[in-house]
Amino acid sequence: MRTPPATSPLADLSARLPDLMLRDRHRLGRRLEGLRRGRDSRGAARDTALAAVAAEIDSAELRVARRRAAVPKIDYPAELPVGQRKDEILAAVRDHQVVILAGETGSGKTTQLPKICLELGRGVHGLIGHTQPRRLAARTVAERVAEELHTELGDAVGYAVRFTDRVGEDTLVKLMTDGILLAEIQRDRMLRQYDTIIIDEAHERSLNIDFLLGYLKDLLPRRPDLKVIITSATIDPERFSRHFGGAPMIEVSGRTYPVEVRYRPVVTDEVERDQVQAICDAVDELAAEGPGDVLVFLSGEREIRDTADALVKQELRNTEVVPLYARLSAREQHRVFQPHTGRRIVLATNVAETSLTVPGIKYVVDPGTARISRYSQRTKVQRLPIEAISQASANQRSGRCGRLSAGVCIRLYSEEDYLSRPEFTDPEILRTHLASVILQMSALGLGDVAAFPFVEPPDRRNISDGVQLLQELGALDPAETDLRKRLTPLGRRLAQLPVDPRLGRMVLEGERNGCLREVMVIAAALSIQDPRERPEDRQQAAAEQHARFVDKNSDFVSLLNLWEYLQEQQKESSSSRFRRMCRTEFLNYLRVREWQDVYGQLRQVARTLGATLNDVPADHDRIHQALLAGLLSQVGLKDTDKNEYLGARNAKFAIFPGSALFKKPPRWVMAAELVETSRLWGRIAGRVEPDWIEKAAGHLVRRSYSEPHWEKKQAAVMALERVTLYGIPLVAGRKVNFGRIDPETSRDLFIRHALVEGDWDTRHRFFQENRELLAEVEDLEHRARRRDILVDDETLFEFYDQRIPADVVSGRHFDSWWKKTRHDSPDLLTFDRSMLVNEQAAGIGEADYPDSWQQGDLRLRLTYQFEPGTDADGVTVHIPLAVLNQVTEAGFDWQIPGLRAELVESLLRSLPKPLRRHVVPVPDCAAAVLRRMRPGTAPLLDALEDALRRQVGVVVPRDAWQLDRVPDHLKITYRVVDERQQALAEGRDLAELRERLRPRLRETLSASARGVEKSGLRDWTIGDLDRTHRAPQGGYQVTSYPALVDEGDEVAVRLFDTEAEQRQAMWAGTRRLVLLNAPTPIKLIQGRLSNQTKLALTHNPHGGVGALLDDCASGAADRLIARHGGPAWSQEDFATLRGRVRAELPPLMTEIVGTVEQVLTEWRSVELRLKDVARHAPKDSIADIRTQLGGLVFPGFVTAVGAQRLPHLVRYLRGVARRLEKLPENPARDADWTAKVAAVTEAYERRAARVPATAPPSKGLRQVRWAIEELRLSYFAQTIKTAYPVSDKRIMKALEQLDV
């Protein structure tokens, strides 16, 4: 007998592993491998470790034995199609790793497959995992399988759904939602606790199902022992077979009855109607078919309400209309399952297509549309558009009426329409956001989403959007190219939270903001269906109950308020009472429980992540800032013109009508959800601030900068910043320091503006010295009217650029650097005059551009401005207001020496061409005549005319100079300033300035001579009156001229700014004071007048004889004052003058009255004759005569004309009479003479207009005025001799020689 070979204990233990459960096999195998690789092959420690492993293997073997013994007895209901084909299915599962089982509802595939697997021996070494799309299905299927296997739920058969786990140590079959299996993948990448996985209802192609199918395909090669069974309705099962490399496919029929399909399009050639009417017609048609409930599919709640209203109005007998949609309360949803009598019409959304089986349905009305969740690539939001359903969905709908007996399905569209539709509905992965899938795949290290073996690969753009959202949330690092490393620490934590990534991001931010508890409450609420119910028939009552929790600024806070209320009520109430309270207050108890469960789960996960809940309630702003972290692409800025918001990527959305913010929308909002139905709606919204958004989206915002500019106050380069998030402007034009954004440009602008241009407030010594030196050279440029003296800005820039470091970009940076540098190099930045002046600027003397102008005793400051086109371009003389009356134009016509040559050249160029020919070349001629001229000895034009006559032998008439062609900068600008050197007025016409500022000048003069001016004088009581008053003011001698002023019934002493005004005022004032102190002879003269004289004097322009005689008295007084030496300036002289006037006034006045009588007699005669002639004479002639008469006889003419000239008025009036006699004989000749007189008169008036209004005309100008009257006699009344020879030429020459 041979002895068996000796084996090691390690080998013996390894040989026992294949009989263990998969998890134990893997776990213990690794320990044995560790022992095998250990350095010490012997020893007590090794023996101890082996013993421990052996003990665990013993325990694991007992576990397998116990599980094998727990396999219940298996039998199959004979009536189920799957049971009838059990052997075929069993063989397929035994022989293949993947099997596809297709069968209609009712075939028994869901309940019988786990039993077939148990019969094959599966479930002993690992669980039989069986997934369902919904929690309700997982629980009910588990109950059904356990019942058929005659075991308690939780023993051989268990289930696991969110918040509930009924799986025991010896459970063989585990029903669960596909989400549970997905979550387990994170903990068990190889799924070693399963030896079989059944993916049920795979035809629904949810996101979870597609991900599981892809993951299993990738896993199967590494788990050859794993069996996978895919069950599906008979909707494209071949696709699953192809996905798993041609896996065998078994099709099992269901238990259904035939269904008659009728096509009744809404609109045909014969009938036009809407969908509601078409449904009503279909219901009427089905009513004739016999009893049975009707299921009508509709796309939304509004369509259900409209259709229900229409059906109710039809008053159908024994018919009940019942709505069915997801937002209904659980009680209202359960109505469709409750027994009833009569007929029931169920109006349902596509929730009744696969999710719920409505009992008793014999008839179906299918409009062929549904709201299908679809991700919009353009707006990046989930839409719910109404779309035509696929053929597969249409067949599912029609199949709903073939469960109990033969049924009828009326389709409200044509058969051609049906056949043209896509065969299958797009799987969810092709029409939903992929962020959650991508996050989980990244956490699992599954690599590129695009390379993952999905049944149908998603659109790469949707993948990109999912990645973009995760980058928005900070879960993925956009800069990381290695896909396995791009998940950030935050993203890894995010992947562990059992909620949508957006909600998870809120939770993590809530922890950071100290508001974790509140944010988890809100996140849990957002992950479930709204617990607030709004029954169709009690919407107002529900709204009133829910209004207690409303926060006007935030729907999120409304949820928080509801939570706090529920917590408080639950503490104070029993379970049953709390349920009743929820029902009474329109709150769904099951959803409230789910809310609490999700919150509890989040709290548990948060604890594992090391997060701590806040004990103190957080303020709402912190809560919203935390929520904002997950909703950055769902913020909106209100359009001020429309009731809508600008959202990310130019999306336009409105706040949902059910929101508390709907009636008074804030400027900025965030929405928990953007859903497109009839339009894009923002559901569950809250007010936010743009600075919150900018802070939270720092990694996403785009910043652009415009208008970088130097700001003196900031001592820095500033720019306008525009901040946008996905195209939404968060900041439109905020000033920011540009130095940190673009240091190079900022440094350039700092040097140019602060240092080169000097636009900086600083006390650095070098800066002040440089500015002063620049000002000196710039002033020289202004004076010389050249731009080539000072070096250009680029030279100055290079000077600073070579010396200042690259990191100096602002005043603050400069101060810091210069503080250290100036101790070693104090003159580093100081200019030298030689570096500022160009070489071409030699030869410019300061004497040619003096700082002041001397006129008599006055020294007036000069300034220079080289800015062509401006009012003060050229030389400006500054005249203090106090000495304005002392400054004359004399000498200023010569200009300063530096501009004199240019002025003379300009004058020569202004000459007419015939004269200009004699002075070319102009620069040479100008230089020659200047050498002959002596500045200031005569007016410039006089001296220039004389020099030209001597130099080139040409006589230049005065009117040949075209002074308007001389450039303005060659004309002196006069600037009048006050004592603070502030400009009061300026211009190039000194006389006009004096006239404009006369009131202020008078005030100044009066202020400088207080006590000199007097009022209310009726006699000479002022002692001697000085002809000139001088007083020092502002470094000048202020000169004024006192004089008596006629103020009617009294006399005053006033100051005048010119001697001419003084003379005029003094004469009138002396006259008034003399007449006030001399007895008037008016009454005496009136008593001696004859009746004829009185009649003649009555026709006067004064308005009465008294006024006329006063005028005669004034005229007589003027004659007497002139006869006795003029106005008196002392009390003694006035007394003498007064005595003489008293004695001589009566006879002289009598003489004057006689002359006036002649004047008025002739005037009256001419006026009467003029009325007769005017009807037939030329208008110009008549107008000229009237103008002449108005200038001869007018109120006050006696004094104005003067007693000595009064007799001449008689001659002139007789001349007018003679003209009126001859005018009808030869009106053409009169018109010719009128034109000649008009030309002379216009010349006289132009010269007279140049006389200031306050100054009397000169003697020569007065002589010209009367010479024009003599000229009229020479033309119109040649029989009346003129007083002296006269002609129009003589008058024009006299005007030219006048010195006004």
Can you tag this structure with a few keywords?
1300 residues, alpha/beta, Rossmann fold, eight-stranded mixed sheet, six-stranded parallel sheet, 48 helices, 45% helix, hydrolase, RNA helicase, helicase
What does this structure look like?
An 8-stranded mixed sheet has the order 4-3-5-2-6-7-1-8, with helices on both faces. Strand 28 (858-865) and strand 29 (874-880) form a beta hairpin. The protein is elongated and about 165 Å long. It has 48 helices and 35 strands. Among the domains are: 9-67; 70-252, Rossmann fold, CATH 3.40.50; 259-426, Rossmann fold (3-Layer(aba) Sandwich); 631-691, no CATH class; 856-991, no CATH class; 1006-1062, no CATH class. With 1300 residues, it is α/β, with parallel strands linked by helices. It comes from Actinoalloteichus hoggarensis. Its EC number is 3.6.4.13. Keywords: ATP-binding, Helicase, Hydrolase, Nucleotide-binding. Pfam families: DEAD, DUF3418, HA2_C, Helicase_C, OB_NTP_bind, WHD_HA2. This is RNA helicase.
- Broad CATH class of one domain: Alpha Beta
Number of strands: 35
Low-confidence region ranges:
none
Largest sheet: 8 strands, mixed
What would you report as the Rg, rounded to the nearest angstrom? Answer: 58 Å
Name the strands of the widest sheet in spatial order: 4-3-5-2-6-7-1-8
Give me the number of helical elements: 48
Name the beta content range.
Answer: 15-25%
Helix content: 40-55%
Structural class: alpha/beta
* Assembly state (oligomeric): single chain
CATH superfamily of one domain: P-loop containing nucleotide triphosphate hydrolases
Task: Output the CATH topology of one domain.
Answer: Rossmann fold
**CATH architecture assignment name of one domain:** 3-Layer(aba) Sandwich
Mean pLDDT score: 86
Kindly report how far apart the N and C termini lie: 163 Å
Shape: elongated
